[in-house]
User: Which sequence fits this backbone?
């Protein structure tokens, strides 16, 4: 039996307007249109979404977890990017 | 001059140190000790940091997870069959819709779990073929027949009840994709047990005939339900490692006891009798003592000799084989469309 | 009103019987994703059947419930199309049956949503959303199978050849329809037929499929004249209510 498997797609769902699409899982489909429909049936059975993205898994480029130190730790030392780094005098609000 | 020679000596020493240091860090870069990787891995686990797909992990951890997740996925998929057996005979429209939705959820859960296993490099088709060849296992309970409508209630009540008990701790499993899949599964399954209990209590409060149907169903499913938690702790070879790696959070026996304690009270409430003459409340332990499980039966059913093992695996294999031409057609069409697009 | 009851029952039975047939796939689909999709369709159809039967029960006004109508009527009292009671066969037969039906149901519900009967209009409105999706799903599969492999093309063309004779009945009308059309309640199916045909032609063109010549269309479902398949379907569907009369589940 020549059995060419359907490709794997990653599914991203916007659960409501105003939120980002979020990765929810994967599924198999023969083409992207089918992937959207399958995603609707598989991942939004309880009206969890208002918008769906699918992308073939093999097209995703991911960062290497072994390089996580060099990629992400430098940002840890840049505390000045975070608002809590700054002193605000008592009595000042809305800042 | 003495100063100078002293400086030279110090410089030499510094140089040697530097070289040694360089060499050390080089060799550690080249092949960081497996032991060191394992130590760091365990450290993450102990700190409750989730392991994600591309992170380094011990081979045994990967294998254990693939085995557990795919068994779990197979259980969902095979579990569709005993209940699917009653979809076309559901007694009213509401029950029919609920049962359909429930069995469909199980397909969805199987899919989430196959997805999680794929993140570990376990190709779904291969995983499924292992089920069809008998290599892979699934929950033994689905190898028992659903003879009456009451079984739809009992399965929801006992089997989903036992499953939830197993699954809730898995939401905190150390492997990220598995834990996330389980969060979805648990959220969706909360109605499964309730609808089951609703069916059973309706029967238990119904006509004598209905009550007898419910009791008979409980009699048939009670022991297989207890077997769902797996062998006793002292016969569970993978348990200790799974606990250490936080793939598992409670032992088989702990979960089984919890299940008995909760379920016995529920049975009493609706006036059904648990079919175990040794069942009695243990004041000291504040738990129920219960009879010995027939482990010979458990082992036989797990190894393929249960009443419906053959039917279950045949049904799944047939679905796959009968669907081969459909899957091929969809692929062939997708390719045609792609190449037409490229030419255009 | 007798006509409204009859009219509602016809729609209800179409959904009920087709929903039952599609639900037989649950657990046996060609791939997990499609298993879930088919079950969704079955669920939608059972839901439509429930809404319609509840309304039919109200219009009948004799105290029968939606469940009584589904589980306690006999073969001759069922009003569904012959098309929907046909057996599942292979995936091609199931999808072709679904496609012929969806291509009818979508324009039908669009028109019924304008009905002067508010309840029917509301049910049509809700069902239309589902039906649009069903039609998209079945149309895409007709194209995939028709324009897929040699085998899939042969299978789906065979299914079309076998089921085409039941499609005339989709547009069957009698005095029930005439009366309700005159009251602005029912849909004139003569207006639906060209829409159905245009969609079928469009999909078939893309799928390289041909509609066979229909020499002698099969009809009778609306009068309770059914194929041999319905009896077995009902024997299964009604088993519990027949074996344990009068009990609640």
Assistant:
């Amino acid at each position: 039996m020549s059995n060419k498997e359907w490709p794997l797609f990653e599914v991203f769902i916007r659960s409501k307007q105003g939120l980002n699409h979020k990765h929810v899982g994967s599924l198999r489909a023969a083409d992207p249109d089918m992937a959207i429909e399958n995603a609707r049936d598989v991942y939004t059975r309880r009206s969890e979404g208002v918008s769906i993205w699918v992308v073939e898994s093999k097209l995703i480029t991911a960062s290497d977890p072994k390089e996580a130190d060099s990629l992400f730790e430098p940002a840890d030392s840049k505390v000045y990017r975070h608002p809590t780094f700054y002193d605000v005098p008592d009595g000042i609000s809305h800042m | 001059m003495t100063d100078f020679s002293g400086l030279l000596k110090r410089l030499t020493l510094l140089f040697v140190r530097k070289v040694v240091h360089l060499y050390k860090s080089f060799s550690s870069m080249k092949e960081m000790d497996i032991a060191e990787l394992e130590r760091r891995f365990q450290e993450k686990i102990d700190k409750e940091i989730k392991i994600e797909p591309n992170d380094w992990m011990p081979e045994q951890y990967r294998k254990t997870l693939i085995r557990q997740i795919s068994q779990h996925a197979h259980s969902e998929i095979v579990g569709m069959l005993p209940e699917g057996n009653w979809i076309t005979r559901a007694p009213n429209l509401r029950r029919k819709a609920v049962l359909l939705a429930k069995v469909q959820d199980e397909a969805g859960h199987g899919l989430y779990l196959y997805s999680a296993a794929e993140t570990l490099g376990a190709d779904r088709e291969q995983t499924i073929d292992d089920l069809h060849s008998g290599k892979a296992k699934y929950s033994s309970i689905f190898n028992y027949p659903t003879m009456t409508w009451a079984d739809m209630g009992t399965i929801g009540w006992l089997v989903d009840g036992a499953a939830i008990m197993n699954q809730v701790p898995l939401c905190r499993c150390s492997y990220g994709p598995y834990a996330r899949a389980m969060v979805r599964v648990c959220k969706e399954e909360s109605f499964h047990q309730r609808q089951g209990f609703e069916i059973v209590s309706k029967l238990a409060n119904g006509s004598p005939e209905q009550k007898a149907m419910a009791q008979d169903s409980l009699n048939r499913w009670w022991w297989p339900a207890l077997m769902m938690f797996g062998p006793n702790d002292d016969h569970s070879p993978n348990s200790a490692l799974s606990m250490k790696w936080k793939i598992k959070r409670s032992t088989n026996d702990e979960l089984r006891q919890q299940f008995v304690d909760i379920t016995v009270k529920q049975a009493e409430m609706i006036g059904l009798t648990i079919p175990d003459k040794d069942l009695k409340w243990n004041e000291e332990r504040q738990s129920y003592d219960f009879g010995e499980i027939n482990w010979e039966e458990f082992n036989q059913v797990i190894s393929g000799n249960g009443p419906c093992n053959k039917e279950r695996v045949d049904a799944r294999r047939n679905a796959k084989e009968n669907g081969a031409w459909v899957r091929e057609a969809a692929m062939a069409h997708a390719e045609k469309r792609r190449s037409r697009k490229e030419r255009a | 009103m007798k006509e409204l009851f009859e009219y509602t029952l016809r729609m209800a039975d179409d959904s009920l019987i087709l929903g039952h047939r599609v639900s037989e796939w649950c657990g046996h689909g060609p791939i997990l994703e499609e298993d879930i999709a088919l079950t969704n369709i079955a669920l939608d159809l059972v839901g439509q059947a429930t809404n319609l039967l509840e309304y039919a029960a109200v219009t009948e006004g004799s105290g029968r419930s939606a469940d009584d109508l589904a589980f306690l009527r006999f073969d001759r009292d069922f009003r569904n199309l012959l098309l929907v009671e046909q057996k599942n066969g292979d995936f091609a037969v199931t999808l072709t049956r679904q496609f012929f039906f969806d291509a009818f149901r979508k324009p039908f519900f669009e028109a019924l949503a304008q009905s002067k009967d508010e309840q029917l209009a509301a049910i049509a409105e809700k069902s239309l959303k589902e039906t649009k999706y069903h039609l998209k799903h079945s149309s895409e599969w007709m194209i995939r199978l028709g324009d897929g492999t040699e085998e899939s093309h042969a299978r789906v063309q065979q299914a079309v050849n076998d089921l085409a004779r039941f499609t005339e009945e989709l547009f069957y009308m009698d005095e029930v329809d005439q009366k309700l059309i005159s009251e602005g309640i029912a849909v004139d199916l003569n207006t639906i037929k060209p829409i159905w045909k245009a969609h079928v032609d469009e999909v078939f063109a893309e799928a390289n499929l041909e509609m066979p010549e229909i020499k002698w269309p099969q009809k009778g479902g609306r009068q309770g004249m059914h194929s041999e398949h319905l009896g077995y379907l009902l024997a299964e569907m009604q088993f519990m209510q027949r074996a344990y009369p009068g009990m609640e589940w």
